[in-house]
Amino acid sequence: MATVAEVRTRVRIPLRLGDDLAVDAEAVTFHGLADGLEHLAFVLGEPGPVPLVRMHSECLTGDVFGSARCDCGPQLRESVARISEAGGYLLYLRQEGRGIGLYNKLDAYALQDGGLDTYEANAALGLPEDARDYTAAAQMLTALGVRRLDLLSNNPDKAAQLTAHGLDVRDRVRTGVFATETNVRYLRAKVEHTGHSLVLPAGFGHAGLAS
Is residue 78's pLDDT more than 50? Predict the structure, then answer.
């Protein structure tokens, strides 16, 4: 574990995600995060001794502008709803483009338009397939008093990294599958490259188009 982080500020924020999702949350900021970035934790519902936790990497295009090239926006809304009901924490991590940054992500999109998948495009740019490090996330959870948790994620690496930092991931809870004709190739690459535990709908052919 890196150096200990501390809670900096807590402030109430009413969240309105679309027309049908309105929840009250407490936003938490931190001192001493290992990567120096301004990550946020949102306290949702009434966290119990084993809270439900989602580590959501920032996606400006999907979260804010509703891009259909990924499933980030729908995952964010689903996470807020499910955690609000179960009680827990949404960690909003400033890791755009799996940690490569916004401009590099858009450069990778251009390569994907030429036929590469999301991981191949990163490699073609000389960048890691996934540059994310969850040390800061582990610090945040520790500062919030979380030692044991259920992790809302299809990504086995997130659970492995938290476990390596001494946290007890009791269960990894799958998110929904938000497949469309425009993002199914992206989702399939997650399964093939990094072992994401999601099952794509049978109606999508291997080329990424509904069949």
Answer: yes
